[in-house]
Amino acid sequence: MTQLSRKSFISLGSKTIGGALLTPSLVGFLQGCSKTDLLSEFDWQILSNQLNGTVLLPGATGFDPFTIPYALQYGKTIPQAVVRCVTEKDVVTTVKWARQNNIAITTRSGGHSYAGYSSTNELLLDLSGMTNISLNSSTGLATVDGGARNRHVFSAFSETSLAITHSISKNVGMGGLVLGGGIGFNMRAHGLTCDQLVETRMVTAEGDIAICSETENPDLFWAIRGAGGGNFGIHTSFTFKPFAVTRVTMFELAWNNFPELVFAKLQDVLMTAPNTLGVKVTIEMVRRRVQPAGFVLRPVVTLRGQFKGEIAEFDALMAPVNAISTPIRVVTNEDYWKAQELRSEEGAPKFVHERSRFAFEPLSAAAQATIFAKLAEWPVTSGSAKFNYFLLGGAISLTAPDATAFFARDAKMITTIELTWKDGDQNIFDNKQWLDEFLLIMEAFTSKFSYVNFIDRNEANFLNTYYGPALPRLKAIKKAVDPKNYFRFPQGIPVG
Ligand SMILES: Cc1cc2nc3c(=O)[nH]c(=O)nc-3n(C[C@H](O)[C@H](O)[C@H](O)COP(=O)(O)OP(=O)(O)OC[C@H]3O[C@@H](n4cnc5c(N)ncnc54)[C@H](O)[C@@H]3O)c2cc1C
Q: Domain 133-244+469-481 carries which CATH code?
C-alpha cells in the first residue's frame, strides 16, 4: 500500500502522486488541506474497493454538502475524504483501514452538531446512507440504523401507533440525539430518548463490534446514554423500546402583551402541569414597525409543544395565563404522527449560537427580571435573540442521576440563550459578548451545567459543564475502551 510521507509528497512533481495522474479533484483537495501526511488517491481506492459504500474525494460530485456544518459560522472544513458507509461491515473496514493508514476518523450522522464537531480535515465517516428502521412485532422493539434522522423515524413510525422521544427537526440525526440524551415533547411522559434505548451496536477503535446493553458491556451502555457522541466508538444501530401513542393536541401560542406577567404565570402553571404536557417556552425580541421608518423591539412569549389530551383540557390548563392576555394560537388535535408532521421543521443550516444551562429550581422573580432586562439590552443582529426553556421533570427524573451519564435528572428545565444572524453581520462581536455575559449572569439562577447536545465551543470548562459528577467514571471508561484516544474531537472525553 502506498503511503506518502511529507518528504515524498514535497519531492513529487505537481501533477503526479507515486506516478498516478492527479485528478482535478485531488489537486483542489491538496491545495485546500492543511494536513501534511496525505494519502494518495490510490490508497483511497483500496479502501473504496472493500466497501459497499463510496469514497468521495474533494471536487467529486456530491462531496460539498457533506462539508457544511449546521452552524454556518464554523465554515467548511474539508476532509481528505468522505467515506459513505452503508453497512456495519463498511464501518468496521473503514476503522481498520484508517488505523493502518494513521488517519483519524470523525463520525457524522445528521451533521447537526451545534459546534461543527462532525467536521474534520482527516477522514469523515458519513452514516447518512444507513437509515433503515425495522420494527419487530414479536419483541415490540425498533432498531434504528446509526445514520437515520428524525425524518426517517417519522416515516417508519407513522405506519404504527408507536413512538420514541424524538425531535421535531427532521434533519437532526438520531445518532447524535440519543447519544447525548435526547429531549423532545414526549420526554416528561416517557423519558429521554436514551431511556428507551435497550441496546446499541458500536464499532470500537479496534474495529470490533461491542454490543452495549444492561447485560453486555454495561459500563459502556451507561456511558453512551448521555456522553456517547464522538467519544467511544461508532454506533451503527440503536434498538429502542417504543411506547404507544394515540391522538395528541399540538399547539403554538404567542402572547404579545404583558410578557413579564405571562412568563411568570406560565411558569407557575407549568411547574404543576401533568407529565402528558411537553413544552418549549420562548421569549423572542420581535421587531415592530414604527412610523415613519424603523422598528422597536418587543418581547413576545411563545409556548410550543404537545399535550396528550383534548384541546378543551389544554385550554383549561392555560386559562390562568390566557386570563392575563389573549394569545394568538394555532392548536390542532390529530393522530400522533400526522400532528408531528404538521408541526415539524427541517432544521436547515444557519448562523446560530445557542448556549445552555440546566436549571434545578424554577426561575425566581429576580431571574425573570434579569432575563427581560438583558433581552432589552440586546445589541441587535440581522437575525433574532431568544431566551428559551425546555420543561423537564416527569419521567426523566424517575431514572436516578447516576444510572446513566445523563446526570441532570432532577433539573426542572434546560434554559438556552440563542442568537441568529445573517452572513456578513457587522455586529456579531458585541452580540457574542452580550450572549456570554447573559449566560454568566444567569448562572446565579440556573447552574454551571449544560446539555451536551447543545455543545458549545465557548465553554471553557466543558468537561465539568457537560458531565458534572459523571466525569470521573466517563474518563475511566474511555481509558478502558479507547486508550489511544482514537475517537477524539476538541471537546471529547480525555483518556483517564
Ligand atoms: C435544528 C436543531 C434541532 C435540534 N433539536 C433537538 C431536540 O429536539 N432534542 C435534542 O435532544 N437535541 C436537539 N438538537 C441537538 C442535537 O441533538 C445535537 O446537535 C446532536 O448532536 C445532533 O446529532 P446529529 O447526528 O445530527 O449530529 P452530528 O453532527 O452528525 O453528530 C453530533 C456528534 O455526535 C457524534 N455522532 C453522531 N452520530 C454518531 C454515531 N452513530 N456514533 C458515534 N458518534 C456519533 C458526532 O461525531 C458528533 O460528535 C437539535 C439541534 C439542531 C441543530
A: 3.30.465.10
